[in-house]
Amino acid sequence: MSTTYRPIRARIDLAALRFNLGVASHHAGAAKLWSVVKANGYGHGLARTVGALEEVADGFALVELEAAIALREAGIRQPILMMEGFYSDEELPLFAEYRLTPVVHRPAQVDALVSAALPARLPIYLKLNTGMNRLGLELDEFRQALPRLQACRGVAGITLMTHFADADGPCGVAGQMARFAEFNAGLDLPACLANSAALLRYPETLGAWARPGIMLYGSSPFPEVSAESLGLLPVMTLESEIIAVRELQAGDTIGYGNSFTAEGPMRVGVVACGYADGYPRHAPTGTPVLMADRRSRTLGRVSMDKLCVDITEIPAAGVGAPVVLWGEGLSADEVASAAGTVSYELFCALAPRVPVVEA
Ligand SMILES: *Cc1c(COP(=O)(O)O)cnc(C)c1O
């Protein structure tokens, strides 16, 4: 594994990833699980993530066709669900060749499937719009499509899918579940509804399959519930070191825009981590960091390669002292929340220049 002279690195704990899939399986009961690995395994590395889960995953779900093909060429045998389906009809032969399960979410895709002479029969997911208003067939479109797909020789089996807009929030799933029941009334087709939040909070959403993503990476889908209390382990730990120490006096400022002013004498550590590493530039003064098992806070603006931390109360922290930006001991959810975002975005934004080490 390559590393760099610059001290920043992302440690990926593959045992934690497998453990979290176990937590998801425990909640899933008899439902099978698509391990969602879109966006390069939520920034954790696609090959690494899939490799770690290969022995235990029922299937993998993503949106990038190149990545799915790479998984097949690497010997992955499980079903692969393409959650945005095919973008152009020309991709359909690749779906057949590589045995990829397309999500069919608009009527033109139904037409394409029905008229394609595919060399292999494909299981498909029919995505229904139950209120998210992003992808999915409306009820009338669904009623027209279903008999055509059921009669289609290229289609091996149909699973109904929908996606919840607020399974992690106050609206919950009841409205969308009622709408889904209208689609499936009298049909009783297999269903795949739940993301991490629904899997954890709404067992009534469990069908034949569920699609957990963020919980596998050790984060909580709920703003008010910690990952730890859900029994999840952090997978990515972003860590670096202090590369300079400064003593400030009252009135001294730190960094671009002079956005932080010292009120009295303080010690500041300059950490080799900035927004070009994927640390959020919007993280304000006070965003938590961890040093030698003690929490502290960022000071001033995050710059491209550096950020500053308060080490006034941590006299042992000097040049070379390790700093955890998020991960083990400091939940990415907490950092994300301080920065006005979600851990999904922090993970996905991990920059290519940060070397990854597997633990
Ligand atoms: C990303 C995604 C998921 C996984 O969601 P999490 O909140 O990460 O569990 C499930 N279903 C669809 C359609 C998705 O796009």
Describe the structure.
The chain has helices at 14-28, 38-42, 46-53, 65-73, 92-97, 107-115, 139-150, 174-184, 196-201, 332-338, 343-348, and strands at 9-12, 32-36, 59-62, 80-82, 100-104, 122-127, 155-161, 191-192, 209-210, 236-248, 253-254, 260-261, 266-271, 288-291, 294-299, 307-310, 322-326, 356-358. With 359 residues, the protein is α/β, with parallel strands linked by helices. Strands 1, 10, 13, 14, 15, 16, 17 and 18 form an eight-stranded mixed β-sheet that branches. It has an eight-stranded parallel β-sheet with strand order 8-7-6-5-4-3-2-9. The N and C termini lie close together (11 Å). The relative contact order is 0.15. The site of pyridoxal-5'-phosphate has 11 residues, from loops.
Structural class: alpha/beta
Could you give the order of the helices and strands?
EHEHHEHEHEHEHEHEHEEEEEEEEEHHE
Shape: elongated
- What percent of residues adopt helix (DSSP H or I)? 25-40%
State the helix count.
11
What hetero molecules are in the model?
pyridoxal-5'-phosphate
What portion of residues belong to β-strands? 15-25%
Could you list the spans in which at least 5 consecutive residues all have pLDDT below 50?
Answer: none
- Tell me about the largest β-sheet: 8 strands, mixed
Radius of gyration: 23 Å
| Total number of beta strands | 18
Mean pLDDT: 97
Q: State the separation between the terminal residues, measured CA to CA.
A: 11 Å
